[in-house]
Amino acid sequence: MTKNHLVDTAVRNLREVILSGELQPGVHLIQEELAERFGISRTPLREALRILEKEGFLVVSPTQGMTVLPITYENVRDYYVVREVLDGAAARLAAQKCTASHIAELHEILNHMENTIEPWSPSEWLNHNLAFHQLITVIADNMPLRHHLEEVINISARLFFPTIQIQLQRAQHALQEHRLIVNALAEHDAIRAESLARHHIATALELLSISRSPLLVAGD
């Protein structure tokens, strides 16, 4: 197995345990334990940790060393400010490039999301919600944008994933917002698609600002 493959595998495995909440926010990472857990040497592990730090999953503390990014109001707010701009740009580009097949895929994801509402399954909602936004970035077909947006979306998902206190009412409203975005994409209305996408994220940020708690806002 090549060194690059070992690093890629370590990045994927570490990202998965962070996204799942298995590695809790703020936890200090012990490299020896991680190397033993994933069956790799320290060198590829250190490279994987540097990649995840660059992506925003990990932070370096002067006192604790490398830790999983804490869930704070300020962290969530900062990522959502960036997401509003990038999501809008992705929706604008996607409206210009989407096909009937893309629209069908998006509707299929929305149907899955609707099925998670009754009975209410927050974790399943978040999984399908993530797939929805990632697909729009794929349709936009802009590699620099896709790279940066997927990074921000992954962090956003990680910030919300560990909690089950996602508001059902917000999830229902978010689903309707998603449907409006898909309608705009289907009509190739780039201006409206961008406006709706930005409003969608701005609404989540507004609710976050009111609640001052990321655990009370649906994972948009």
From TrEMBL:
Organism domain of life = Bacteria
What InterPro entries does this protein's entry cite? GntR_C, TF_FadR/GntR_C, Tscrpt_reg_HTH_GntR, WH-like_DNA-bd_sf, WH_DNA-bd_sf
- Keywords (A to Z) from UniProt: DNA-binding, Transcription, Transcription regulation
* HTH gntR-type domain boundaries: 4-71
Entry protein name:
HTH gntR-type domain-containing protein
